UniProtKB/TrEMBL annotation:
Xref: Gene3D superfamilies: alpha/beta hydrolase (3.40.50.1820)
Name of protein: Alpha/beta hydrolase
Lineage, top ranks: Bacteria, Bacillati, Actinomycetota, Actinomycetes, Micrococcales
One protein family per Pfam: Abhydrolase_1
Record keyword Disulfide bond present: no
Organism this protein belongs to: Glutamicibacter ardleyensis
Length: 405
């Protein structure tokens, strides 16, 4: 029947087979190129766009009360829910914000993991079924037992809220906490026990686009290429208030920001050293890793990197100016590192691989001290091994204090 229909089509004005093949190939190539371009644009935009709210990937299967009246949340076992150490539950729409204990197995239910409810900071568990688990386990320094003064930093983008925890025996030693992408100043509270033990003054700052400080004009992260200017303001504040020795404590992207501050700030000479947790040493490596993790072809990942670094990519990223990824690559720029640096990085970090930290430490053993952790997810080093984390900071800070005497 099909043959008969074809035979009766008149007139038969068709393309030659070879030309038809080329045309189809070009069309398919155009569709493929458009798909690659769209995916790369989406990937690049996600890298630099602050998330208005976190996706709640931690599924709560049950909320139970034990014989002692303690409340336990049972989660589907996963990388986040089973990550060692305490954590904070941030329910969808922040209906509940609470601190949870380290995970425990649920008897006879290997697919579940249990965490005890230690404190509700805000909201209620009523109706909560899923949330995001954060490594920042405190909402305020007071939750960890520390008094803090609310201050405001006069950032280039506007007023930036900050917490100031005055020092004791080493008041002129200041540590400035620089949080990571998608986090807030609460991230550094976990370091307060060891920092205050050494008598340091601690400044926990906010910076552009973090949900506390005002947004930049484009509302986009600079991945460290712009945020360092806000940290420079914090360094200036410290200098104006008696600091004679200043250290930057950077987490994840905050590590990239701290490195840029120490490199590009007019006040770099007043920065003594850096302490970096799960730091981004090379964004190209992170982009490549994230592409693999999300099953995105490497060609798409490379194109996403190109979009971030070129003005022509602004249509996709929304950046006011391109990000200089070469300037953010401290493996290639290892010879330009000038500050003593402590790197604390878990070999099980699934978001920012520790490979570049290893390379930088190997290239600059004269300046870089590396402390490798295991079992911890991204920036969860103080959660999974609080003693080891505190010891690494204590030893490094003690050496830096002695060096200034």
């Amino acid at each position: 029947m099909a043959r008969n229909i074809v035979d009766t089509l008149e007139p038969r004005k068709t393309l030659p087979a070879t030309l038809l093949g080329v045309s189809l190939g070009l069309a398919a190539g155009s569709v493929f190129a458009a798909s690659v371009s769209a995916l790369a644009g989406y990937f690049a935009r996600r890298m630099v766009t602050p998330e208005e709210r976190r996706t709640g990937n931690a599924l709560i299967r049950a909320i139970v009360t034990d014989e002692e009246g303690q409340i336990w949340l049972h989660f589907t076992r996963g990388a986040d829910t089973a990550d060692p150490g305490a954590c904070m539950l941030i329910a969808e729409d922040e209906a509940c914000v609470a601190r949870l204990s380290a995970p425990r197995p649920v008897p006879e239910k290997p697919r579940l993991v249990a965490r005890k409810l230690e404190q509700i900071y805000r909201g209620s568990l009523d109706g909560v079924r899923r949330g995001y688990l954060s490594g920042a386990i405190y909402e305020h320094p007071q939750d960890a037992g520390f008094d803090a003064e609310d201050i405001t930093l006069d950032l280039a983008v506007g007023p930036g809220p900050a917490w100031l925890i005055p020092g004791t025996t080493a008041r002129n030693l200041w540590v400035i906490g620089v949080h990571g992408r998608g986090a807030k100043r609460t991230e550094s509270i976990r370091a307060l026990p060891v920092l205050t033990e050494l008598g340091a003054t601690v400044l926990l700052m906010s910076y552009r686009n973090d949900g506390l400080a005002p947004n930049a004009v484009d509302g986009r992260y600079g991945l460290g290429d712009t945020e360092w200017q806000d940290v420079e303001t914090a360094v200036r504040y410290a200098r104006n208030h008696g600091a004679t020795q200043i250290m930057l404590l950077g987490w994840s992207m905050g590590g990239a920001i701290a490195l840029q501050t120490a490199d590009r700030s007019a006040l770099a000479a007043h920065i003594d050293s850096l302490m970096l947790v799960g730091p981004v040493i090379n964004w190209v490596d992170v982009i490549s890793h994230q592409a693999r993790l999300n099953k995105i072809p490497q060609t798409v990942g490379r194109f996403a990197g190109w979009l971030l670094t070129n003005r022509a990519g602004r249509w996709a990223t929304g950046l006011a100016a391109p990000v200089n990824l070469k300037r953010l690559n401290w493996v290639d720029r290892a010879a330009e590192l000038h500050h003593p640096t402590l790197l604390m990085h878990s070999k099980d970090d699934q978001f920012v691989p520790y490979g570049p930290s290893l390379k930088l430490a190997a290239l600059r053993p004269d300046l870089v001290t590396l402390r490798v952790f295991s079992g911890a997810g991204h920036t969860r080093e103080p959660n999974s091994d609080p003693q080891g984390f505190a010891a690494a900071i204590r030893e490094f800070l003690t050496r830096r204090i002695e060096a200034q005497r």
